[in-house]
Amino acid sequence: MMTPRRAVVPVVLLILLVVLPFLSVDIPVLFGGPLDSPGTLNLLALCLVFAGVALSYDLLFGYTGLLSFGHALYFALGVYLPAIALTEWEWSLPAALALLAVVAIALPLVLGAVSLRVTGIAFAMVTLAFAQAGNVIVQTNPGGLTGGDEGIILNFDPLPDFVVGIVNTKYLYWLALGYAVAVFLIARAAIGSSAGHVWRAIRDNERRVEVIGLRPYPYKLLAFVLASFLAAWGGFLWLLLIGVTPEVTTATFTLTLLVMVVLGGTGTRFGALVGGFAYTLLDNRLRNLAGEERIQELPDVLRVPLSEPLFLLGALFVAIVFFAPGGISSFPARLRSLVYRRAAKESAP
Amino acid sequence: MSTFVLLTITGLGLGALYFLIASGLSLIYGLMGVLNFAHGAFITFGAYAAWWITTHVEASAEAELILATAFGLVVGAVLAAAVELVFIRPLYRRPVEQVLVTVGLALALGALVFGIWGADPKSFPDRPGEVTALPSWMIDTTTILGARIPNDRFVEIAVAVVVLAGLTAFLRFTRIGLIIRAGVENRAMVTALGIDVRKTFTFVFAVGGALAALAGVLSGIYFSTVDPGRGTSLLIFAFIVVVIGGFGSIGGSAVAAVAVGLVQQYANFYAADWLDWSGAGDVAVMFLLAGVLLLRPEGLAPKVAH
Q: Tens of pLDDT along A250-271?
């Protein structure tokens, strides 16, 4: 449990995030416009969505030690299934969401049951293959359902008014904040439960768990289904914020989730949240930076790498793995130990 | 019948590409336990290096193609050796970090290709002002059992067969091959006997990179283009081949590559006709993988390099 003192910073941060749409503050380098402008709120909402999705991935990778390369599939499910239900079948919103809730449990239950028959790298490959099948289905547009490369133009009629239109971005922002907080609370409860203890034991030494007399399989399946279910709702928010784009089904998309988690720090309470938020923000800022004139005027050797955000983020990721394996969330501790060491050196005779 | 023959030989040609990629991946994983996501970058860089040669050199079509292939191979091998020395070796004994680093490299190098050469496919080989960029005999067709088959398919299959024979002989009859085989089976024991497996590993990485680049060049001939997504799309199928074939087994990779190539081609034609859906071939391969793993979780071959 969190002690009252340790809870102060997250609670203050949360209050700040809740009232943020009312703050007309300009933060020059981080955001393109004042905090209450629709563009900035949209970006912040996206950052919060990925904070949540990254945390859902961390349940698998950081807490249970399952390296999945197919998490994008369940995120994409949350994007595509409601979009198809609302647009093609003209369902009402509650019906579409109920369908998503059912499928977001059933699909990972079936696919997880198959892929968890193998472990380690083979598991990674099977999840990759299933996600790739999802990508192929979306790209090849069977029966004109998924729209292929074009995606789907969402039918907004069944949606409540407050999520539609640019003036209402702040409601989407709050939805995204609610999502991130919900994922955090669910993840915390799950990690603190007895199943959560078994997850960490599996991560550290699966053989030992078996020797104690527990079957790791149902616990791993539970982690897989829970993580996938949480990711699917992140997909639904992406649908409201961005719309339907086939890029969410690609293997690269899953890899970016992995990058987020490692960037923030795996298996730590706030690491994945921070990583997902920071990655999304960085990606967006680097994209804007690439379009700027002072970058475009540079010689090719500098211009080409600097205008590819994924190159810079990939390089940053490699650097983190090499030099700061704990990710961003280990920075305070690193800083502290650095300061202590210096202080100790100075006080030494 | 003629359609079946055409599909079979095209499937074998595709399987040849998968085998070239998978054999390197499989040895790298078998020897060091490194799942190399950066392999896709070796494919793409090799293909673009060869394409670059064809735009800069003026010679006969044959000479140009041979030069381009050789250059692609060198680029693939050098890139792979550099990746191993700079990024993989310092993380020795930390397998998860090694995979993460190759993921980062795959993303970064992929983005770099995108930035340098753009998103559009380039026609390969690129010989400005000529209608037939490939040697003319490669474009001609051979008629087998009524099927008219483009000759370049035979080139791909022949290259893969030569590589398979060469790799098998190399693993069986040379000292390094012996160390690799022993290392795949029990690395700790080989190290305990005083042999530095790490040097061998750099070598295996370079060979894997060269083979991946070769697959990239051949895929340029197969599809008549090179594009920035080529590495990633081929890599996913190569991963499937490695899993089906069993890690560390060259023979297993060859069998699995043929199976995957054929299933993909047959399903693409017959099921696509029947379902009216063009994604059937790729999805059939995913089902093949799931089926094999359900029946034999360790893959077709046990973990031995032979």
A: 888 988 999 999 998 888 878 8
Inter-CA distances, A129 with A111, A304, B289, Å: 11, 32, 8
User: Residue B303 pLDDT > 70, yes or no?
Assistant: no
How many Å apart are CA A217 and CA A328, to the nearest integer? 32
Q: Do B236 and A132 touch (CB under 8 A)?
A: yes
CATH number at residue A166: 1.10.3470
Which residues from chain B sit within 8 angstroms of residue A130, using beta carbons?
286, 290
Q: What is the pLDDT of residues A109-149, one digit of tens each?
A: 999 998 898 888 778 888 988 898 899 888 888 777 888 88
B2-295 fold = ABC transporter involved in vitamin B12 uptake, BtuC (1.10.3470)
Contacting B with CB below 8 Å, chain A residues are 67, 114, 117-118, 121-122, 124-126, 128-130, 132-133, 136-137, 139-140, 142-143, 251-252, 255-256, 258-259, 262, 304-305, 307-315, 317-318, 321-322, 325
CB contact under 8 A, B236 and A128: yes
Q: How confident is the model over B194-243, as pLDDT tens digits? A: 888 888 889 999 999 999 999 999 999 888 889 888 888 899 899 889 88
Mean pLDDT throughout B158-165?
94
Q: Considering the domain boundaries, does residue A183 fall inside one?
A: yes
In this structure, are residues B27 and B212 in contact, taking their beta carbons and an 8 Å threshold? no
Q: Does B99 contact A67 at a Cβ distance shorter than 8 Å?
A: yes
Secondary structure in 3-state letters for chain A: CCCHHHHHHHHHHHHHHHHHHHCCCCCCCCCCCCCCCHHHHHHHHHHHHHHHHHHHHHHHHHHCCCCCCCHHHHHHHHHHHHHHHHHCCCCCHHHHHHHHHHHHHHHHHHHHHHHCCCCHHHHHHHHHHHHHHHHHHHHHCHHHCCCHHHCCCCCCCCCCHHHCCHHHHHHHHHHHHHHHHHHHHHHHHHHHCHHHHHHHHHHHCHHHHHHHCCCHHHHHHHHHHHHHHHHHHHHHHHHHHCCCCHHHHCHHHHHHHHHHHHHHCCCCCCHHHHHHHHHHHHHHHHHHHHHCHHHHCCCHHHHHHHCCHHHHHHHHHHHHHHHCCCCHHHHHHHHHHHHHHHHHHHHCC
Asked, for residue A58, whether it belongs to a domain, the answer is yes
Q: Would you say residue A21 lies in a domain?
A: no
Is the distance from CB of B267 to CB of B250 less than 8 angstroms? Answer: no
The domain tally of chain A equals 1
Query: How far is the C-alpha of A127 from the C-alpha of B290, rounded, in Å?
Result: 10
Of B250, B212, B201, the C-alpha closest to B234 is B212
Give the residue numbers spanning the domain of A178.
38-347
Q: Alpha-carbon distance A327 to A266, whole Å?
A: 8
Q: Which one of A217, A252, A261, A301 makes the best mutation probe of the B interface by having the most chain B beta carbons within 10 Å?
A: A252
Does any domain span residue A25? Answer: no
Q: Residue ranges of the domains in chain B?
A: 2-295
